[in-house]
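[Automated response] Your request has been received and processed.

Submitted sequence:
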Amino acid sequence: MTEVSPFPSGALPLHKPVVVIGAGPAGLTVGNILRAVGVDCVVLETETRAFIEQRPRAGVLEEWAVRGLERRGLAANLLERAQRHTECEFRLGGERYRFEYHRLTGHHHWVYPQPLLVTDLVHEYADVRGGDIRFGVRDVRLHGLDSDHPVVEYVDDLGEDRLIPCDFVVGADGARGVTRGLLTPDRALVSRHDYGIGWLALLAQAPPSNDCVVFGIHPNGFAGHMARSPDVTRYYLECPPGDNPDNWSRDRVWSELQQRLGANGAPPLTEGPLIEKRVLDMHNYVVEPMVFGRLFLAGDSAHLTAPIAAKGMNLALHDAFLLGDALVAQLTKGDSTGLTGYAQASLGRVWDYQEFSQWLSEIYHGTSSGDPYLAGTTQARLRRLFGSPAAGLAFAEQYLGKDPEY
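Generated structure:
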């Protein structure tokens, strides 16, 4: 993070109040919030528009997150097209255990694949609200973050070096982005937890085989079933960390899914071609304090939750709502309260979701751990979950997420 001016002699480039790095849900939502009140900004993205609109990612949105999008005029397609889920199902020992969380809480989940949300957000930002978004950039460098006049330097899609002086930088370019890489140990505390397991993430060109999310808890390993659309289903299979996806043939994948998700009274899974197959090593991390001079981190740049509890996209939107509103207050009213309190407001929810992810992992993976003690505690937790209304309500509230007002 150099303080040396990158400007050559001569005219300065056009100033922008905010530069957003990364066109995922967090960065695009911040951009849309700014454009809604006429604040100028630039979004920089390394990939093409076509790529980000098709990249497979998460698909579960919590009700409060959808309400936050709706209040900002960003949920019209979502509310028309998304599936509403009100319960989930655990499968263990050949039996099915239905968990009706809507009945306990009055709240539900929405299933809306992230590529569809990103497509909506890009369209609203660039095509409707006239936002400036630049695709195919590379070699992004940040200067003067500890000053009042930061500068973002990058190489555009034509190979030309560009400079943007600005007031604030939003780092929303993910776990492997440039903003995450700037954070040396002397500037940031990175708390990390490795689960020591992998998940084989699969997309199948096949309709969902159940009307809700299914969690298979099996001695062979965890398995998950999550609808993505009427014709596409997301599956997960527990596997060794670092496993090679090529080790999993189509026949092996479907054999394990049928076995791990099989239960009395459940029809066989509807099989189909596998259109995605990759191994995710399960880990979480949290970067603190999330603010470094004029750089504000959001989404996976600041914290990562493994897909164990389907919290990642929701946390990204939580950051975006907080940060977008705070930047608007600062830039339109001179009110710095939101920016000053941004990290603290975000991290409260981040750590809640981290803890729940870890707790849920112990249920998912206890039976396959090879440790009879962990297998026994898994059984005890599930008995309590289905036998105690108080325990069921506590789980439902964590599963659905806290319900702030936006």
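Summary generated for your ticket: The first strand starts at residue 16 and ends at 21. The chain has 13 helices and 19 strands.
If you did not submit this request, please reply to this message.
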